[in-house]
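TODO from last week: model Pentapeptide repeat-containing protein.
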Amino acid sequence: MNLKLSPALLIAAALAITAPAQAANPAHVQRLIETRSCAGCDLSGADLTEAHLIGADLRNANLQGANLTNANLEGADLTGANLEGANLSEAFASNVSLNQANLTDANLKDANVSNAETAGAKTSGVDITGALLEGSGISVGSD
């Protein structure tokens, strides 16, 4: 059998191989948006831009590479959460718990992370350009 593939199909196949995977569990994203409670959820790579997550329970959630640009996380519990490489630029995250959280290489540009608990948090490579970090324990060179 002689099988011919169209150029459009070949391009689509190539894009599927090289495009970054969105690993977030859609059911977990929906649960978070509806209930603001998703402890231990897989939210890696999720687009949570401008999400209203006031007081959200995100303990031990995987938010690696998630987009939380301009999200409201006031009072959220992110204890033990994996925020490695997450984008929290312009996020409002005052009075949050980031104890034992992994913030390695996270983007906190212009974010408000004031009065945050950060005991044991990993903060290597965090971009805090223009961020308000009063009372947060996050600073340049902190780990």
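Done. The domain at 38-138 is CATH 2.160.20.80 (Pectate Lyase C-like).
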